[in-house]
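Worked example 4.2. Below are the chains of a multi-component assembly; read each line carefully before continuing.
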Amino acid sequence: MTLPSVSNFSAGASMVGYLYQVRIALLWAIRRSRISDFTVSIETLDDVSFEVDGEPAAVLQAKHSLNATATLSDFCPELWKTLRVWLVGLASGEVPPGTARFLIATAEAQQGSACAALGIDGPARNTTEAAKILKHAATTSSNSELKSAFDGYLTLDDTEREQLLSSIYVIPAQPDAAAILEQLQAELYHVSLHHQDLSIQMLEGWWFKRVLNELVHPDGGIPRAEIDAQISEIQESLKPDTLPIDEELDMLMVALDQLPEFATRPFYRQVELVGGSQLRIRNAITSYLQAFRQRSAWTRNDLLFDADLQKYDRRLHTEWELQYAQVCDELGTQATEEAMAKAGRAILKWAEDAHLPIRSGVNVPWVCRGSLHMLAEDRRLGWHPDFEARLKAIFDASTLRDAV
Amino acid sequence: MTAWQERTIEQRNLLNPAFCAVAVWHLARGYQTESVIFTSEQTGLPIELAFVGASLVLRGHTRDQLPGSIATSLATWVHDHPLERSAVAKGVVVLREPVREALLFGTQHGLLSLDGRWLYAHNKQSKKINRYLRASSEEVKECMRQAVFVGRWLCKAGAPPTVLALLGVQA
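Applying the procedure described above to all two chains together yields the following structure tokens:
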């Protein structure tokens, strides 16, 4: 007599099945999120169900076999247990006839079998043929465990069977619970070009907790928006912390005799207004050109403008605003021209020394400095306490004159 | 839509509605030309492919990796360029507003017309556009040349849902 072994108690296959379900739910949810809104639930209406506007749009049964040679034959329990669940759901009205029903299995579908005839839309799909095969299987099988499934199926009339089968899709030969990772990778390519594995790890980590929470405290399922938000968050956190810096730009130096070319530009006038020297103006022009060209290259090469540059400009403006307010407060209302110019030079100095990197790894000083000069060029900020009025007098008066 | 003054210099200079509209014009031209080969009539550029096409040509890195001939299948290219696939998917999101604006601009200024879900490039604007291109940088010329190519390539790639699915783009 052989002694019982601990392995007799092993529920390895069941456990893999449950973990597979969790992964499949995530994979399908990500794919579906590209098409429409939904809430996804696990172990409610089915292994995984997707509801849209309170109605089940799709339900999934996930069948994972550890046995690599398993196939979906016409008599197999994977098929019939699934049909039983669906028959019950149909009869009770919980899952309407129009809902798409997917059987996802790692096993292959035997050629000529009912499962082979119930694949995704294509030349091989033939629900009438499948109905015949299943009827035959239900009437001839002697498997007592599946009796209720067979009875349930045979109770339906031909039209009802056709209707049911037309909502069923069998997806065989799917990657196993470990290999499904590759499919997840394919779907999450865009999250992080440089940290593919990490982004999946982070998402799955969150998903596991979220699913567990939903199982323990059911709350109507997990909305697509939540999944999207999580993916965005992960994307944000994995952004590379550097940006490419053009070496030639880093070495750019404007010659003193080039200064006059820029003399009519707002950012030039802004430095002049506070009494900045030629050297200072030269540095302003150099930084301006460097930042301008580098940001342009980032945008042209990488479309890097959306949140990044706009956010960056806003951040710089906010920092400037504080400096400006602090300096103006000290000046008071009766300041002399001399005092105002001096105060303006202090703000300019702040801008020249500012170290607000666009990404933590970008260390050249001219990205920040030049961007501030670009904002000065745009007249969105300035150095002189009275810069708005002064610039208006210089630039807007002349255009008014020309217009008249 | 962000107010004009709120936009960065880069958004104003590089992704303004006029420039993007010209790019879409070239995309539609390419698509229409290729479509005649399949059906006897010209089909317009499906509107969702305007976003995808823009994402393929407006990003320098991606544009540089486009294949040399439309004979290369989109599926193969996507498989061989996983990083570009990600970039295109991201680009579509980033370019949503600029391209929408470009379509509005294009239709308002007689560059494009929208018939249901399809965009058509107006031929009568070719002279003006060519004049603009002659005065433009090599990069701009290249961008527009590739836009025509991408238009043809996307036509060959099949129905819009297929293209979107291949590129992992949200509808």
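Take a moment to check your reading of the output against the notes. Strands of chain B lie at 45-46, 112-115, 118-121. The interface with chain A takes residues 2, 5-11, 13-15, 55, 58-61, 82-83, 85-87, 89-91, 93-95, 139, 164, 168-171 of chain B (CB under 8 Å).
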